[in-house]
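Lecture 7 notes: from sequence to structure.

We start with a single chain of 211 residues. Read the sequence below before looking at the structure.
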Amino acid sequence: MNTIITIGRQFGSAGHEIGEKVAQYFDIPFCDKTILTRAAKESGFCEEMIQNHDERPTNSFLYNLVMDTYSFGYNSSAFVDMPISHKVFLAQFDAIKAMAKEGPCVIVGRCADYALSEFDNVINLFIYADDDFKVKHLLATNPDLTNESKARELYIRKDKQRQSYYNYYSSKKWGRADSYDLCINSARLGIDGTVKLITQYVEDIESRRNS
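Now the structure, written as tokens:
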């Protein structure tokens, strides 16, 4: 196994759980929130600040100006003048590249496919799902959600954030088929069926690459 797998996902599509199971199948690292921890450690940023910017672009000049007081580690004048949201993105970008250089892994979200566009051993996936599946999955996994309406409001808001983040920082379009190698509706196959499809797809790609 020598493949890096990136997973973009709609909120509520079970993309996180699917990514975990794929990583377990191949016995390789699963990178999600660990990206934030590594980005904070290697850039010198406060981890809480990176979490606050995670897949959430902001255009607030005042907020960026205030948060700049937390910046450490990078000294170039271009970097110093950059908005804090851009600095956080670059810190995550560098962390993703560093993880990929260490070996095969599964990386969820955060424009990982764009960050690794120069790597030739990457497979980029996008997981989406039907409305009913997302609502049921969110209600089952989020005790704070009390009704279907709240679940819909949550995934609509989260997906808008992810779409805005991806489209702003990458040269591609979030969720559009030509931005990925494979797009899968997890509602059709369920979590385990989607994992089975992904692992078979990766194994077939690796077989062709090595033949």
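The chain has ten helices and five strands. Keep this in mind for problem set 3.
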